[in-house]
Amino acid sequence: MDMTKLSEDQLLKQVQRSTLWTMEKPTQDHQAGLVIPLINIGDQTHLIFTKRSASMRSHPGQISFPGGKREDIDGSMEDCARREWLEEMGTKLSSPLVTYHELRSPHGLHVQCFCSHLSSVDQFPNFDVCPDEVDYAFSLSIADLISRQSIRWVKHEKFGPMIEFRIEGERIWGFTGFLVRQLCMDLFGYELRYREEDSTILNES
Predict the structure, then answer these.
(1) Is residue 81 part of a domain?
(2) What is the pLDDT of residues 87-102, one digit of tens each?
(3) Does the structure show a pLDDT above 60 at 55?
(4) Is residue 201 part of a domain?
(5) Domains in the chain, number
(6) Which is more confident, 58 or 72?
(7) ∠ Cα 151 155 157 (to 5°)
(8) Helices 174-188 and 8-17 sit at what angle, rounded to 10 degrees?
(9) DSSP per position, 128-197
(10) Is residue 181 part of a domain?
């Protein structure tokens, strides 16, 4: 199997083989749903990211996956993830959602992550993104993300060594960078491990 390209069936199988992290459910006010979108373009699997609007109160201008806090109208975490996708990307997500890790964000949110393998019916790359929340959406291939030239390590004062992906003028770091690293390990078998002697380490607080 080409480990930089996955079909929808292969995605499901790889997630099922992974040991998923789960957490005690918090109150609804502290829950969020997030979609990690994958799409095959040519002979490569890509991840789709969003560039958050500079006017957003939290994480303005940063790279993220579509998602947000659960609201009263959401009957489930999947409903939350699909609603957030529609609000941010401007189109209904018709592809199945595959349950992935449950994680606690640095800001204390309980985040239920889902993977979704998109097809052409999801209109990529012509999303009608909400300009109040998203500047633009773009994709990067797994092959490019795992390239040594794309990876940096930052010594964070609070969190310790953190991975960053710097590619095509974009900086993917923090919670999103952590998710990309975990996905590359779980689904594609790439061990992106920290090495202190790596010359790409940066010292940042």
Answers:
(1) yes
(2) 999 999 989 999 999 9
(3) yes
(4) no
(5) 1
(6) 72
(7) 145
(8) 100
(9) ---TTTEEEEEEEEHHHHTSGGGEEEEEETTTEEEEEEEETTEEE-HHHHHHHHHHHHHHH-------TT
(10) no
